[in-house]
Every structure is written in structure tokens, then in C-alpha cells.
Amino acid sequence: MDKNFQEEQCTGVIKFTPPLYKQRYQFVKDLVGKYKPKKVADLGCADCTLLWMLKSYNCIEVLAGLDICASVMKEKMHRLYPLPGDYLQPAERSLTVTLHHGSVAHEDPCMLGFDLVTCIELALDAAKRYDYSVEFTGVGNPPTGVEDVGFCTQIAVFVKKYPQTSEPAQSKKPTEAAYKTVFKAVYPSLKDEKYLQNAVVTEVMFTAHVIKRSLLDHLVSEQENYNDDPTERKLQLQRSVNCFSEDLETLAVEKSVEPLTNGSVVYIPLRKIFSFPKVNRLCGTFEKLCELITGKVTLSSDGSAVVLNTEHENEEN
Q1: What is the pLDDT of residue 6?
Q2: What values do phi and psi take at 153, rounded to 5?
Q3: Count of C-beta atoms within a 10 Å radius of residue 34
Q4: For residues 99 and 44, what is the distance between their CA atoms, to the nearest angstrom?
Q5: 141-152: average pLDDT
Q6: Which residue has the higher pLDDT, 312 or 54?
Q7: Over the stretch 203-222, which tens digit does the pLDDT of each residue have?
Q8: Closest CA to 79 of 65, 94, 68
Q9: What are residue 155's phi and psi, to 5 degrees?
């Protein structure tokens, strides 16, 4: 602390910890955490750093950036594209990120309807024009003794004075496009039927194999209690999986919610799979589960159980 203080006295430079730019970003992130906006716009987004930070917030479904300098946006806008992990594990919410080239002085209908808009150096006239109340605050406290100069970065928080269901009479909606769209990314989402189906099929097959593995391990464990000889154990396992009736498939899918074996085949009822929390959460209803996996997963003749083969597992045992 003493070293920093001496440096400030010698150079005349005041240092802030954390740096002011980080404090500005954190201030906006705190607002997002507090108000949970679905649509956020950053006017004067520059290198898109704030948008990149905000895209991880689950409450946000639409992110838009505007800047008068297209080249600055294009330098770092690649960070706003979905990552491979976003496709492997799509989020439940939808997210669209768009960048526009233009001036904040011009009006464009693409900027209507946002819940939170970030910008610098706004005037009180803007608040009065659109019927907002304004709270002035900021980041970067001034040094002791000169508190009257205010924050290093001043921030104005605008809040609508009227309910969201109504509109101020004096506001006029822009009808003509003034901005040029230079970037758009639509993130994979479970709200999209295609991604939902892929996620459900993957989770169903994973769950089915977990159940199958557990069943076979249980059968092997039972046989080990009787005989420790590997060859005999394999024969005993084969007898155990063949001990069911010829019409086991019908029995499995109609009467039971537990997995059953018939020779080298395991039948895992969909009701059993649907009881697993993640599958249940993804599908919502049993009917939706059946709809999503039909034609994508090998099922029993009446479509009530997933069918898996045990030959590979038997060879290992």
C-alpha cells in the first residue's frame, strides 16, 4: 500500500483496484444478476468484451451489440460464436447474439424491446423523452479529500416509470432500418426440437447401458457366490440369462419396469429409463420420450423397451 501511495504521489496517477474497466463490467453483471433481463443491448460495444461476458448468463436470450466502428467489432467477434461444448450439451434456454454497425444517434427497430441497455455518456433528455427515471451512480471512488469530484466512471441506471404492458404516448417507434448487421449467432438450445431429440437419444442410450451394466454385474456376482471357476461361471451366467420364458419380451414390456434378459438380449423398459431424473427433466412426459426416440433407438416389438445385446459383456466375463 505504501509503495503504491508513493508512486501515485510522484507520478500524479491514481490507480484503482480492481482496474476501472473491470469495475464497469462487474457493475453491469451485477445489474443482470439483479434484474434477470432476457434481452440486453450494449451500445458502443467496441471489441464485444461485455457481450462475451454476458452470454454465459442463463437469463439472457437475446444479446445485441452496436458500434460505429465495424473493424473493432470484427476483431474479436469470433468469441461470440458457439463453442463445441455448446453443441455437445445444448442449454435449455435459447440465445441469439447479433452485432450491428451504426450510430447510436440513429434509430432502428432492431433495438426495440430490450430489458437492459448499456451505454456511456447518456444525457437526462433521453430519460425524459422516453419516460424513464434515472439513478446516478458509478465506479472508481475518488481519493480522500476530493470526494466532491464524484466517481471516475459515472453510471446512470434507467428504469421505466410505466408498466411494461403500456407505452408512453410521446415515444415514436422507428420503422426503417438504419443499422447493418455484421454478425449473428444462434446457439443450440433444447427448445429446438432437433437438439432436444439428440440430447434425449444420447441420454436414453447412456442410461440404458448403465442399467445393462448393473444388471450383468449383478448376475456375475450371483454366480461368483457359487463357483469361482471362470469357465463354470460363464456357463452359469449363460444358463441364468436363458432361464426366462420364450415370451419374455412381452412380459418385460407389459408387466415389469425392471430390466430383463433373454439369451444375449437385454430388455430395458422405457418406464425404467424415464424414472431417471435427467431423462425425466429433458422429456417432461413419458409420451414425449416415446415420440423423441422412435426411429432413433432399437426398441422391442411393441416399442416399450430399449433392446441391447449382451454378447460383448458375456465375452468379457
Answers
A1: 40
A2: -115, 115
A3: 8
A4: 11
A5: 61
A6: 54
A7: 999 999 999 998 888 877 77
A8: 65
A9: -130, 135
What's the CA gap between 305 and 270, in Å, rounded?
5
Start-to-end CA span in the chain (Å): 67
Rounded to whole angstroms, the Cα distance separating 33 from 296 reads 40
Residue with cell 432437433: 194
Alpha helix (H) ranges present in the chain? Answer: 2-11, 20-35, 49-54, 70-76, 84-88, 124-129, 193-224, 230-241, 248-255, 270-274, 277-283, 286-293, 311-316
Q: SS3 for 148?
A: helix
CB atoms within 10 A of CB 223: 19
DSSP 14: P
CA pair distance 176, 106, nearest whole angstrom: 10
Please list the residues that pair with 210 across neighbouring strands. Answer: none
| H helices present in 96-137, as ranges | 124-129
Distance CA 252, CA 213 (A): 18
pLDDT: which is higher, 317 or 218: 218
Reading the block at residue 23, the C-alpha cell is 469495475
